[in-house]
Specification:
The structure is a homodimer. With about 350 residues, chain A is an alpha/beta fold. Helices cover about 45% and strands about 15% of the residues of chain A. Chain A folds into two domains: about 160 residues, Isopropylmalate Dehydrogenase; about 160 residues, Isopropylmalate Dehydrogenase. Chain A is globular, with a radius of gyration of 21 Å. At the A-B interface, helix 9, helix 10 and helix 11 of A face helix 9, helix 10 and helix 11 of B.
């Protein structure tokens, strides 16, 4: 059972696990050829799901684990008590070389804490970041950090810029991605001190892309830059604010089409066009937050997603491995001139 | 020429000033009876605009000012060199008692700096905040701070909560408004230290509303709480991210209706329903950011707005005066037990 790519899956993480994990793997199998899956979790629940999917079963192995991490477990507790959990053993599989990447829809804080302890940060990276791709007026952009680091210093922001632009070039296929620092005004005098020093440093840093300068919140969806760099607090608020606003407008749209008979008929006529819009803006299409900066590929799926969303998270992880993202990061960091930091003990407040 | 309410207008601030300022006053006149306007700015440009509007002219006075503040002027420079500017003299009119409130669509940083120097903060308020009302799934909410204070400590956040809930009760008419602190998770352990101490303090503070706890970015548009409290950096990013996302979805909608002949016909049928949606979500309806915490009412209009938007900002200012917002804040602060701070010298980084 040799395969180009082996993916470790935390089969017990997520609201609809293990069903959507197994279902997601089955969908991902069709999109990523030559792949193998290691399912970590309750064999009694996973095996029957695989029995229903003979093609998936042929490329799947179950590693039975009696424990899993609950959604409300604190990262430190999960670290201490979750050594036999599905999440931890799935991460271990990457560290041991059994798998090339791991995907989980479980507890984000626990996943980041475990991934940092087990996989370690890349040489030259002080702190890993959570990154995600989302739709904009001009196409797609990547934003990081989305919540791994509440406080970020200049060095962290510069490293995020390097990782983000390597991603944009490697996975999004942009030759010269633009990088913006999220701030509250384009002027030099605005924002936190760390933003100003990071901007000064990024102007001198040979990025794989081009440093654009400061951007503001409205530039995110406008697609003004390809890579949006921010601290984990601001990034998390911005991402969730955008999600909430999108939901609000979807609700306004629904109410509008239901507000009169003519509007209802209008909807029926425009329905197939709206189906395409729905597909385009489908959050499942953008499911899969990447933990960048680790010696190993780890992707976090949204906990509430379904098989289609989970399949997307699997493909995000596969893409990072196949494109050799981490190797390119290492090469780029050497180029930027960062030196490895032995102390990666600063805990990220996930 | 006696009137219940006199409003000072910076006639030279904004992209389309003074036309939209005069036009906005004319529209506001119809909505706020018994009002008078003081126009500060270039008489040669304002007078002809008033000549076209005899009903407005009857309740208007022009105060000629040779100077105005440019949009890119730094607040400190504007303070030093803009003593004869339309913005400064309009603010002075509130301080002297000639007017009860001031509205400007000019440079936000300069307006806040001047308003703080001239009007001073309310006793018991350490720092004024910028606040705005916006639509949610449940109705309307108010968020503050939106950019006056990049860094906020516990005390500032608690004061914002008090001001926001007084506003929600007084102007939005909610008997027991709910107040949430914007964070990146509902758990106690998450976010900045100042958020945790503010939450602890708000649980003990007799607010005019009810403290809900932490909320996340998606709760803003969901309308989970009536008052969203945050630091000026995060609030500014969240507001602009929401604006950008709304624009993105409007653009997706436009493209969807243009994507096929059936969709185009569908739009024609649903058009009048969409007109109502457009009106509901019209940013001009929510134009008018309030500077709360000053001894005097000062409202900032969006710089790019038109007469309709500017009229809304005028009505926001009039509402604050008519509802006795500042008096209620003072009463509430006495209730909360805050003591006046003599030192209001900490400069806000607008």
């Amino acid at each position: 059972m040799s395969a180009r790519l082996t993916i470790a899956l935390d089969a017990m993480g997520g609201d609809h696990a293990p069903d959507m994990v197994v279902g997601g793997a089955d969908k991902a199998r069709e999109r990523c050829p030559d792949v193998r899956f290691l399912f970590f979790g309750d064999e009694q629940r996973i095996a029957p799901l695989l029995d229903q999917r003979p093609e998936l079963k042929r490329i799947a192995t179950i590693h039975h684990t009696p424990d899993w991490i609950s959604n409300d477990a604190k990262p430190a507790v999960a670290l201490r008590t979750g050594r036999k959990s599905s999440m931890r053993l799935a991460i271990n599989a990457v560290s041991s070389g059994e798998a090339q990447c791991v995907v989980s829809a479980g507890n984000t804080g626990a996943l980041m804490a475990m991934a940092k302890i087990v996989l370690k940060t890349l040489p030259g990276i002080d702190r890993p970041a959570i990154a995600s791709v989302f739709p904009t007026q001009r196409g797609e952009s990547i934003m990081l950090d989305l919540g791994a680091n509440v406080e970020c210093d200049t060095r962290n922001l510069v490293e995020f810029a390097v990782m983000g632009s390597v991603f944009a070039r490697t996975v999004l296929g942009l030759m010269e991605p633009t990088v913006g620092l999220l701030n509250i005004g384009a002027e030099e005098v605005k924002g936190h001190e760390s933003l100003r020093t990071a901007a000064a440093q990024l102007r001198e840093t040979p990025l794989p892309g081009k440093f654009y300068g400061f951007i503001e919140g409205n530039d995110i969806a406008a697609g003004t830059v390809d890579v949006i760099v921010t601290d984990g607090f601001t990034g998390n608020v911005a991402l969730k604010t955008a999600e909430g606003t999108a939901k609000l407008y979807a609700e306004f749209l629904r109410r509008t089409f239901e507000s009169s008979l003519l509007a209802k008929i209008g909807y029926i006529l425009a329905r197939s066009a709206f189906k395409k819009l729905k597909q385009r803006a489908d959050p499942r299409r953008y499911n899969g937050a990447m933990f960048l900066g680790l010696q190993g590929v780890c992707v976090k799926s949204h906990g509430g997603t379904d098989a289609l969303g989970f399949a997307n998270a699997i493909c995000v992880a596969a893409d990072l491995v196949v494109q050799g993202f981490n190797e390119k990061i290492k090469a780029e960091l050497a180029h930027v001139g960062n030196t490895p930091v032995p102390d990666s003990s600063k805990a990220a407040a996930v």
